[in-house]
Design goal:
The protein is an all-alpha fold. The chain is built from 3 helices and no strands. The protein has one domain.
Length: 52
Amino acid sequence: AARAPPAWRDAGLPLSTPSNEACKLFDATLTQVCLQSSPGPSCAALWRAFCT
């Protein structure tokens, strides 16, 4: 299930939007990208780029 803003905050990755739909869409997109490629440096780089 895609995560809403409180779940991202609880994970230590607050997003700058209060929109549940935007957070869920971002989560679903990032999950899809990471699942299509093997988890590794490229996936970690995506997380750092988008979540820091």
